[in-house]
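Supplementary Note 3. Input sequence used for the single-chain structure prediction.
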Amino acid sequence: MEFLDQASIGFLVIFLATLLIFGEIMVRTKGLFGLLGIAIMTMYFSYHLTSIDEGFWVVILYLIGLCLVIFDGKVTGDGTIAFIGILLMVLGLALPAPDLVYGVLVGLALIIAAPSSYLFTKVFRPRKMWEKMTLKDKLSSENGYNSMNDDYYELIGKMGVTKTPFRPTGTVEIDGKLFSATSDNLWINEEVSVKIISVDGTRILIAPENK
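The predicted structure, written as discrete structure tokens, is reproduced below.
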């Protein structure tokens, strides 16, 4: 396997192995991508590692990084732990490299291949563990989400009566229901007839009726 002495070949090998391993994490391929990726990665490590002790710790470093990436996808889902995992994996690949250029290239190969594996989700069935990170579930009104509460939105243009003084926030009664509202820096006394000017989310803006 002398061809692995070339940095460009090392780049391609790590790129392909990472693409397949992360592809297995991203999509459902019944272990095929994972087996191929592990086989290629094993070839890289077995050729470059020179001692049992070094091989043990470098491989462990790489595996810890991979576990952190999987943990982030399953539990936290915000990408922070996955980022740390990627860094550990880069170190695990770069340490056994024969020189600095080789180490930089294999690290770059992993950094490029990891996000590129997301393209597999366009072809294969993605795993649910990544829906949160990829924002697959959109906050749409069809799914019960709305940037403006519909009940509050319907209040625009209605009349109400202040139940507390507004300095500039307070409580207003609209259609027999009490709501927290703001008068936008206007001081309004209690029991004053007001109009609902606008609604932003659950923020209700009121103004005196004659204003």
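The radius of gyration is 29 Å. Strands lie at 159-162, 169-174, 177-182, 193-200, 203-208.
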